[in-house]
Amino acid sequence: MEKIERQKEITERLNAAAKAYYSGTGELMTNYEYDALYDELVLLEKETGTVLAGSPTAFVGYEPSDKLPRERHAEPMLSLGKTKNRDELKEWLGDKEGILSWKEDGLTVVLTYEKGELVKAVTRGNGETGEVITANARTFKNIPLSIPYDGNLIVRGEAVIGYKDFEKINEENPETDASYKNPRNLCSGSVRALDPKITASRNVRIIIFALVKATDTDGKEHDTGNSFEKSFIFLKSLGFETVEYERVNAGNIKDAIARFEERIKDNDIPSDGLVLSYDDLAYAASLGRTAKFPRGAIAFKWADETAETVLRSVEWQTSRTGLINPVAVFDPVDLEGTEVKRASVHNISVIKELKLGIGDRIKVYKANMIIPQISEDITASGSLAIPERCPVCGAPAVIEKAVDSEVLMCTGTECPAKKVKSFVHFASREAMNIEGLSDMTLEKFIAAGLLHELPDIYALKDKREGILGLEGFKEKSVNNILESIERSRECECSRFITALGIAGIGLSAARLICDEFSSDMEKIMNAKEEELSSIAGIGPVLAAAFYSFMHEPANIETVKALTKELKIKKSEKTDGDERLKGYSFVITGSLVHFDNREELKALIERLGGKVSGSVSAKTECLINNDAASSSNKNMKAKELGVKILTEDEFLSTYLEGIGLL
Question: What's the CATH number for 491-569?
Fold first, then answer.
């Protein structure tokens, strides 16, 4: 019974880690930890004869996002069995010919072509169901949109972002480094973005690794000579970039592995190993599959390069949730051709398991040759002191249980690190529109003591050297941030009011208030509650919230400090145009004529309309450029008989003469 309980525990931990990793939202454990737990689970399942529902040994991939349309794969997309032993790989191949190729580390995508045109792209998802990302796939920089093949073609490939592009994106946008720890996570987030412009900006490539199906115009299967290698040759002739490979046999496979290994340091495409497939397709198919693995291919994973060093200190960084994260600082070592001197330690549980202490001799490695991690504390003194107070606000720090780990939390209710949401809102596009000040960047600035209150944003120009001293910030990215801050000094009154984060006061309500008081900040700050509530579109609830905010001493001080830094202009008036009054709209998907949905929402509200987050019988129309989408909102609109209009159709129908088309 204890073994079954342990299986349940491991299954829960591995699934949580896999979901975070494959969805691009972060990493909950190191590769060492994941592999060790996975291997333990395999042994337990053999011993108990039980495989629990949801076991990662039986299922693969991530759960698709609710934000993208889903589609079931015609055939399950299986994972591969793996080994780190070269002799096992040679034994697996036996007397057969094989194809040894890179195991690219990105996001698997299935492409479908009909009559020579790309018609669909779907992610791997959980192996059974994926997400439709056709619009995003069309922006992959090397994808053929048309091919010289009139039949129906289905291929599988790995969407990837190269190391050079990853580093360039991090240099220009330091917040990306905080959100996405490696090219694989950045690629996953980019490919599955809701706005294709984001995907296009990330230089995503697609490397094809398998021909799934090719049906000629006469309905017969295309002849590739029963050869995996010849299928690659066929795909290359159509314009696809295929994965690099070598043809191998038992006599030369170890030499081939060595050649691939030698090229790792210079390979721009992230890889976490190799794939060995039988060249004889009929033989591979005859072997069948297990519940999770096809028997015609196997993965070879590299053993991570490790180095010994000495732990010199641990930095504690408070996040917006109050979580105080430990980061190890050690004597620099060379790993995979780069200097490494810092590594995340994740949480208190990891510190205790490793028995860390300052001055201890430790082993470090790069997970997947990218992410620095500590694999072992050789000294294991266990002497590291856990902080008793938050490094940002000085409030007591307490250890709490989170899932299966212990974490350190700040108890301070007024901790600046927890105020990051107000900073993010202030810098957002619909407010002050300060590019580069993302939540992750602001979190770093706050943790470093560079920001305490909103007016501090305009003092960052005097703290340039301090910003450059933070990890991940380069000359160009810092210049971009500071220039964007300077541009924001001249702003419309309504955007400034919106930026203050007053409950219920969005850009539309802010414009109404600014109109009423001619964008005079002194009049706005001293407006009486009854004056505010008499404004059409404001009402008593918003008036009370606005009045209360403007009469809080701390808020008065903040507003006055900010107005000294800014040149506030009159806001664009509504001019009494309320053509959308009485209409309720829902917006979904990416837009063409507006930078984002908030911008369109603000226009609709300025013209008297309302924007809801869900479709109902009262919805005038759903605005969606992908009218054929199978999304929940589209399905609901069709069910209720609500019109689905593209952005252009909406503008020509409801906003004729507004000057956007």
Answer: 1.10.150.20
